[in-house]
Design the sequence.
């Protein structure tokens, strides 16, 4: 596995089609929230935007609608399989974003000082060196340009009734992602990381998602079930049983689940600022 891909490796899932479907549904559910946040933090017509680790390009396409008719969106992705999905999505669409292969640690595919607005969506949690990635983003932003970050923090997860082994399930997934170089509790650390790496005017918002907003099945799918890919083989039996008990609670109508995401933006200071 390419270490630059971090702790996420699309193409190595037991069902890549299932993971792609999850990414698509996650984007559909979250976009209205993300759109409002991005617009509030400066996304607008005419900007040059980099969507970093853009995956299959779904969000890149939605961002393009916000910066049209005069703006540009460049989706950057290192994973070859996801980049192929993005190119396929854009094929035949003259208004589609441009997609480029790129490593977030270097971003050689972008000119220094050429980006007005950068978006990092569920990227930094997978990186062994998130500060290095932020320094790279800083170089690519124009003075006064802004980065917006959407990230997880698994400590925000809770549910009722309590599901036996759910805490163990989450902690096992957190530990395995950490072993692979990631950090599923990075959300709370973002503001400090941004300040430490030259950004200013950091603004943090925590947004919750729960089963009053989406169905219990969808909640479990986009927030929890995919973490089976992080569970070591010797732990799969009890981990699957844990998810089965959650599904039983959902089917019985008694389940409430909630989690949250951190939405943080910050600016590269103006020249001389």
Sequence:
């Amino acid at each position: 596995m390419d270490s630059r891909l971090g702790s996420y490796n699309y193409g190595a899932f037991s069902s890549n089609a299932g993971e792609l479907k999850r990414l698509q549904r996650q984007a559909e559910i979250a976009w209205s929230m993300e759109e409002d946040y991005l617009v509030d933090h400066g996304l607008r017509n005419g900007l040059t935007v980099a969507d970093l680790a853009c995956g299959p390009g779904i969000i890149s396409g939605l961002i393009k609608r916000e910066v049209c008719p005069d703006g540009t969106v460049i989706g950057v992705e290192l994973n070859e399989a996801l980049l192929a999905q993005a190119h396929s999505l854009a094929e035949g669409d003259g208004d589609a974003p441009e997609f480029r292969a790129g490593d977030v640690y270097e971003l050689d595919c972008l000119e220094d000082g050429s980006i007005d607005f950068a978006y990092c969506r569920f990227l930094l949690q997978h990186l062994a060196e998130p500060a290095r990635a932020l320094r790279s983003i800083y170089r690519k932003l124009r003075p006064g340009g802004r980065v917006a970050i959407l990230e997880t923090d698994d400590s925000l997860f809770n549910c009722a009734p309590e599901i036996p082994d759910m805490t163990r399930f989450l902690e096992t997934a957190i530990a395995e992602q950490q072993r692979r170089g990631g950090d599923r509790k990075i959300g709370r650390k973002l503001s400090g990381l941004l300040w430490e790496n030259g950004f200013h005017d950091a603004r943090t918002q925590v947004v919750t998602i729960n089963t009053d907003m989406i169905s219990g099945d969808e909640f479990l799918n986009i927030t929890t079930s995919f973490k089976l890919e992080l569970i070591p083989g010797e732990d799969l039996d009890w981990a699957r049983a844990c998810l089965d008990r959650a599904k039983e609670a959902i089917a019985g109508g008694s389940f409430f689940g909630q989690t949250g995401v951190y939405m943080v933006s910050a600016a590269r200071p103006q020249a001389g600022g």
